[in-house]
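Supplementary notes (optional reading)

For those who missed the lab, this is the record we used. Protein: Peptide ABC transporter ATPase. Length: 331 residues.
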Amino acid sequence: MSELRFENVTVRYGTGRRALRAVDGVSLTVPPGQVVGLVGESGSGKSTLARAAVGLAPLASGRVLLGGQDVVHRARGGGHRPLQMVFQDPYASLDPRMRVGDSVAEAIPRTGPSDGAGRRAEVARLFDLVGLDAGHALSRPAELSGGQRQRVALARALAGRPSVVVADEITSALDVSVQGTVLNLVRDLQRRMHLGMLFISHNLAVVRYVSDVVAVMYLGRIVECGPAHDVLADPQHPYTRELLAAAPQRDGSAWADTGQGEGAVTEVDPPDPHHVPAGCRFHPRCPVGPLVRPDRAECLTLDPTPGSAGRVHGAACHFAADRLPPPGTAR
Ligand SMILES: Nc1ncnc2c1ncn2[C@@H]1O[C@H](COP(=O)(O)OP(=O)(O)OP(=O)(O)O)[C@@H](O)[C@H]1O
């Protein structure tokens, strides 16, 4: 059982005037066997943080630790791979020319079964685990549905016998009708195998369904973090409140990501990571900040420190403790 920990992680892209910090000093912990849901609108840096975890985005500073060991310096031998990533588009992560059974077999570590029969049995076990008919092993990715391909991608990830899985928008590219089934499968596997998971989604209903801890990201920062129930039922950061107000309410299609239901805050004036505002980076959009409360001048100059990186509920807002009134009522 390993804990995944981001310590003050910064990722920069570009140079000179085009330089931006996609992730800006993020600390976040994924406790063993728990799901940390990461939400935030497009461009907030969620994918970059995920990629940083598996070494696909270069760290400008900070560290990513798995079980206390720096992931960058972990031996990349043929042993089991304790940190695995599953992407939004399973097509992109599967070789189109390979039979999917071979793709999964390829991901079995060298410390696993080495003879043909043993490896075939392991592939069959993994297919069974993700609810795929063994007959599909001979198919190419193009012959499968999107949901089946995502199951193959999951089987590949599980072949490494991970203790932590980073899942980046793994249901959002799927047909609405299969999103719920794949999500249920992932949650079921996570519980049965006691996997730690960093689960990224812009869909709050999905995050609500799977997460033990919720972290909210805005312009490269975690602005609120804590136990899922606390963050979602009693949000402290005005941005979280706006996200929640904009999210579709729970109904029969609670998981369905139809691309609708993104509300005002996510449409108006999207933040530009090339020009991060001084002070609190949310202040130009804050419904309870200096725009409407001129007395709250510290928001213009003081960068609020993140309140929490894990299980304690906290928010990076100078007035979080003030029990801010809901958006729209503060005037
Ligand atoms: N390879 C790259 N080079 C330059 N800028 C990048 C690169 N990847 C991401 N960015 C920028 O970094 C910021 C964060 O992007 P990122 O994809 O991490 O956000 P996100 O929250 O995952 O959004 P989405 O949900 O749209 O993927 C964005 O402004 C994006 O344009």
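If you only remember one thing from this example: The chain has one domain: 4-82+162-322.
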